[in-house]
User: Which sequence fits this backbone?
């Protein structure tokens, strides 16, 4: 019952992704042309302070026509360590440098279309180090109580899957 890729050809390349067309052999012997997005991994960071608050961005996503909370995140540069990328993205987007990091979870974001994995790290605390370099990305940066996680997800104030999963896991790990 497995699908077998017989090869892919490049349709479009950008700095963010490659769009390929795969020739797929289905279990019943039929062939299927299937588009595949090849994307670099995404590094995500959840900083939690000693008051059980998490550092979140309030961001506009024009593609979805929505504004919601998200964890700091971004693409991993070629050759860059994923943990280092998570720290870099957090500093660039929030102005806070995460404390000691631990891997929390790796998520396949859309395996029916893309090979992109989101690697979520978490840190106990963060140190403010100045204005964020990418201050244009979030409308605001704030510490939000983890205890509000269920409410934020249910009300649509958290829409991004990596953020929702990370917040729920952190609540469980911290007994909230």
Assistant:
């Amino acid at each position: 019952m497995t699908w077998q890729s017989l090869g892919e050809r490049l349709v479009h390349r950008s700095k963010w992704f490659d769009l390929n067309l795969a020739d797929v052999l289905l279990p019943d012997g039929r062939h299927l042309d299937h588009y595949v997005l090849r994307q670099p991994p995404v590094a995500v960071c959840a900083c939690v302070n000693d008051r059980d608050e998490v550092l979140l961005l309030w961001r506009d996503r024009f593609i979805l026509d929505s504004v919601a909370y998200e964890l700091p995140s971004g693409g991993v540069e070629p050759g860059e360590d994923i943990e280092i990328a998570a720290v870099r993205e957090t500093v660039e987007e929030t102005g806070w440098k995460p404390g000691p990091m631990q891997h929390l979870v790796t998520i396949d974001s859309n395996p029916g279309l893309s090979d992109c994995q989101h690697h979520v790290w978490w840190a106990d605390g963060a140190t403010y180090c100045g204005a964020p370099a990418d201050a244009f990305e979030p409308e605001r940066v704030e510490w939000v109580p983890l205890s509000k996680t269920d409410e934020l997800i249910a009300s649509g104030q958290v829409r991004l899957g990596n953020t929702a999963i990370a917040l729920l896991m952190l609540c469980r790990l911290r007994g909230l």
